Amino acid sequence: MEATAARRRVSRWHLALVGALAYVPLLLTEPGRVSADTKSYLTLDPGRLIERARSMWDPHIGLGTVTHQTLGYLFPMGPYYWVMERLGVPDWLAQRLWLGTLVFAAGAGVLWLARVIGLPRAAALPMAVAYAFGPYVLHYAARISAILLPWAGLPWMIGCAALALRTPGWRGGGWKWPARFALVVALVGSVNATSLLLAGLGPVLWIVAEVVDRRVGWRAALGTAARIGLLTAAVSTWWIAGLWAQGRYGVPILRYTETYEAVAGASSSTELLRGLGYWFFYGGDRVSQWVEPSEPYLSSLPLIALGFAIAAVALTGLARGPLPRRRSFVLMLVVGLGVAVGAHPLSSPSAWGRFFEVFVETTSGQAMRSTPRAAPLYALALAAGIGAVVAWAAARVPRRATIVSAGAVVVLAAQLPALFTGDVLTSSLLRDESVPEHWQQATAAMDAGDDATRVYETPGSDFAYYRWGGTVDPITPGLIERPYVARELVPYGGAGTADLLNALEDQLQVGVLDPAALADLARLLGVGTIATRNDLQFERFLLPQPRAFWEAIRSAGLAEPQAFGAPAPNEPDPRFPLLNEQAYNVAAAAPDPPPVALLDVPEPRAIARAVGTQRPVVLAGSGEGIVDAVQAGLLHPDRLVAYAATVLEDVDRSRLDALLADGAELLVTDSNRRAGRRWGSVSSNIGYTEQAGEEPLREDPQDNRLDLFPGAEDDSSTVAELTGVRSVQATSYGNPVSYTPEDRPANALDGDPLTAWRAGAFVDVRGERLRIELAEPVTTDRITLLQPQTGSVVRFVTQARLRFDGDDTLSVSLDDTSRTAPGQVVELGEARTFQVLEIEVEQSNYGVLPSYSALPGVGFAEVVI
What we know:
14% strand, 31 helices, 5-stranded mixed sheet, 6-stranded antiparallel sheet, 22 strands, alpha+beta
């Protein structure tokens, strides 16, 4: 009876107002324009997505892959979009209704929770608006709204847990509210386990607080928790099994997405308190912000002040206001903020932060690294604080309680101006309701081809941004049934297939691949059709120039291209003209490519095929070696290829000896290099070739190498050998996003002033170190330092610290002579004998800045000892 009464006391007017705020502004936002939200395939063809999501193996992506999270779209997102499509609802309208429903569900849940805990009616609406219309929603609304599901479900989960505690027992009503809790989890929990688990801390903390406050005994609390856990596990088994299968058999995808350092870099307590702090909110590519509504929160002083003022009022309400279940909300605030802050600041983390640093090194920790997704916990607590303040004010002027409540709603809604100005979506991710006709024709032609072979779409791109709109996911696999492969930012398939695809695409995009070898490489990969997408926003991710790329593909000996769409110039954004060597080398008379073109591969090979075992090739190398061997005419698509590192597994030569005895050819390449690998772009992924046993001076969290040959050591890899010194290393080189081997540390000791070690592009350079270990100790009273002579030299070192054998140090100022050959002679004062010299950057000419985004790195062209 108590639970029923609590639900009935929710004001219909409050629900109507929350619904109006949730739906009306969104329905007026960009009508007719579809956003690239969560998975573009939900709007392209939800039926096809649901069909494929049933299986954990997807032959249509990445030369075949174990899917990641796709299973989660079986419910509720997939069926929702499928029903909307069957009802004839336009995609843009279905999207706005979806997002509006998430916001409405969050607000309605808080209204209900407020009544469950006994908060006055005048305070319930401001509490709901504070939670549902806070800036947190902007983190995900424009691109990955599925992450908002646990946020929308949190107040409902807590309400169900609270009412379950009031009806204990294993019979009758004791199961009703746990069952409803499980139903909420079933609705919100399948797409992202991290968000669900972090939001799920809320009801756990609520139960703990109820026991501490002696409102319920620990036996009853454990019984309630057991019932909730049992039913929740039962309704979640299907997607948990999918996560298990992906973790057991799929590529370790968590290693190749955002790092914890990126996540923790933005999660300061001040940003979190105003509803922000998720790293994605602050980033962007060369052309635009990832989340365009983020800009006012970083530059508008009134909006920044409003955010902090609301947080201050909320904290006051939590501390002093008439708030029922205060301990529960305070516990959620403390735990939520503690988890979300994590290891921030990374430069000097607390003991709590160091725990997080250690935790995220584990497999479970990697899965939970997006700690700011604990935001719903403290956001709900702060909203309760707002409700408490309004309740206090309304009690002082009971006849004007409605006015107090309405005024609070207006102020709180003002912290989300983008919703009411039509800017809540990101313009670069919008497209028309239907994809262009030439793309529809092209994908139909792809499906009309031989489905025993796959389509290879090129050039690969970090994300799919076409001239007609950004979709994040490439649209082709969502519109065809034929197997499909393209180089994407995240590697799919196995380590070997991902490495081979990356090697091919890298050479193809850089322009060093022999076009005549493309057909044989396509046959090796089971490709029957090569599709060129020539209407990409190529300047956004430094992709190849469309005209130059089209010329290379046309000269590859493939079938006559089928063009879709009229050829037209693909001009870059005027702000980023991208005038590089490709732009200047392409002939002026070279034709403009069509937006899409298909080129069939002559005599293609099926994906699943048998090859003879006579004269196999044993290749000692990586995917790069396969690509090079095909170009050299050493590999035929109908010959069996085996990796030497695989057949030599466990140092057992018998398999290799057997193959060689059967007439196998042993092909040795230097391609399997010991080198770092990053995944921040589709190019410049591979670092310089390292020495055997080389250990980094500073861990690079973005260095995540493909485990091509598990168990293989340095004797199975190509390594560098330096002469005259034992090693030359640095804390970093190039920039934090991509690898630039041309900036490697050894350049500082190669005798060539035109090469240099550089580090710290786009970031603070203080603390960067170059470490030189000589073959033998030397005695000298001077060292000559020459800074880089080529490239952008507007930024340079002004103060450095020399360290000799780790202990003896000397701080030196570098003047203009260090920037012109032969360099600045640094007098050591007296002769010193040492074997290890470290040079640490202490200051640069730009000093300390809020941002270093446009600045090149610093370093040394020559260090003469």
